[in-house]
Design a protein that fits this description.
With about 325 residues, the chain is α/β, with parallel strands linked by helices. The protein has a single domain, classed as UDP-N-acetylmuramoyl-L-alanine:D-glutamate ligase, CATH 3.40.1190.20. Helices cover about 25% and strands about 25% of the residues. The chain contains 7 helices and 15 strands. It has helices spanning about 10, 65-75, 90-100, 165-170, 185-190, 260-270, 275-290; strands at about 30, 35-40, 55-65, 80-90, 105-110, 120-125, 130-135, 155-160, 175-180, 195-200, 220-225, 230-235, 240-245, 300-305, 310. A 9-stranded mixed sheet has the order 5-4-1-8-9-10-11-12-13. It has a 4-stranded mixed sheet with strand order 3-2-6-7. α2 packs across α6, α4 (about 165-170) crosses α5 (about 185-190) and α6 packs antiparallel against α7 (about 275-290).
Length: about 325
């Protein structure tokens, strides 16, 4: 797949208003990724060493980058999205599978009898910033797992947060393939496939990428910077072109999942054949909408049944978990 054309002038208009974006065409998209059962603990501020504080609110949902991207894609398309993942064969894993199915995913699960489902505790402070502690190892689907890998050849696009090298090669059968550096650069190097886009955070050392880290190099690399927008690196713009984030007129409720929702929007736009300005704009609006929800799912951008256009739920008080 060749990237849509874009010039420097295109990106000065990013993000385009949501109502100016075209409707997404029917797409078949998939995600290969991980799940963490996350307990969100809302606090006025993070505790200092030795301090005891009281939580304002607590809720728990199956999340993690793979799950958040998959749910955002399902909401953009209005159809179930195949999600290749791995879960421990335990109560947490069974509950996560049921809840993710209810959120619109077509689950393809590699069940692990010898490892527990990964969990996490996420503190959300008054500014909406998240601080995460993970518990257990990240479980990864592999090509050796008896999953419906042949579905990937029927896909317009696929996104990866966790997979082994051979599963990544299978995912290359999709017309458009995108990934996060959290897939782990050494695994992406071993796979040796071309990515249409590598999408990560410039603010997260674990998502750091240097030119030459992958061969072949990704056609497009996006490094996000939260409220400052981000930078796009292409063959013609090795130093990167800046793009802005949507302006906000209300406080951030919760930053968890915003970057993953952005990546989902970019993957959908590229898979639809949109130009770079429209693709980045969709990613920006997905990330910004996520900031309005309690947890990753309530605020996500979604397809209206009435006309197929995209909209975000109106910000409200306490949100439901989904």
């Amino acid at each position: 797949m060749s990237l849509p054309p874009a010039s420097a002038a295109d990106l000065t208009a990013v993000p385009l208003p949501l109502e100016q974006l075209p409707p997404l065409p029917p797409l078949r998209l998939a995600v290969l990724g991980h799940v963490e059962v996350v307990r969100f603990v809302e606090v006025a501020e993070l505790p200092r060493p030795g301090q005891i504080i009281k939580a304002l609110e607590v809720h728990e949902v199956p999340a993690g980058g793979g799950a958040v991207v998959a749910v955002q894609l399902a909401r953009l398309l209005g159809t179930p999205v195949p999600f290749f993942t791995s879960l421990g064969r335990d109560a947490a894993g069974e509950r996560a599978a049921a809840e993710l199915t209810a959120l619109g995913l077509e689950l393809h699960v590699a069940w692990r009898d010898d490892a527990p489902t990964r969990e996490a505790i996420t503190f959300i402070d008054a500014a909406g910033e998240r601080t995460i502690t993970v518990i257990g190892e990240r479980l990864t689907p592999t090509a050796a797992d008896p999953l419906a890998w042949d579905l990937l050849a029927q896909c317009d696009g696929a996104f990866i947060t966790a997979a082994d090298a051979e599963a990544i090669r299978l995912a290359r059968a999709a017309r458009c393939l995108t990934a996060t550096p959290r897939t782990r650069l050494e695994i992406l190097r071993e796979a040796g496939v071309r990515l249409e886009a590598l999408i990560g955070s410039a603010l997260d050392p674990a998502e750091r990428y240097e030119p030459g880290d992958l061969d072949p190099a990704p056609s497009l690399r996006i490094a996000t910077e939260g409220a400052a927008g981000g930078r796009v690196f292409t063959r013609d713009h090795a130093d990167g072109e800046r793009f802005a984030a949507p302006q906000r007129d209300r406080p951030v409720r919760d930053t968890y999942g915003a970057g993953d929702s952005f990546a989902a929007g970019v993957t959908a736009g590229l898979s639809a054949g949109w130009d770079l300005a429209a693709t980045l704009s969709l990613g920006c609006h997905c990330g910004a909408a996520c900031l309005d929800g309690r947890g990753p799912y309530p605020g996500q951008l979604r397809r209206r049944r009435s006309d197929g256009r995209l909209s975000s739920p109106a910000p409200s008080g306490p949100d439901a978990a989904a």
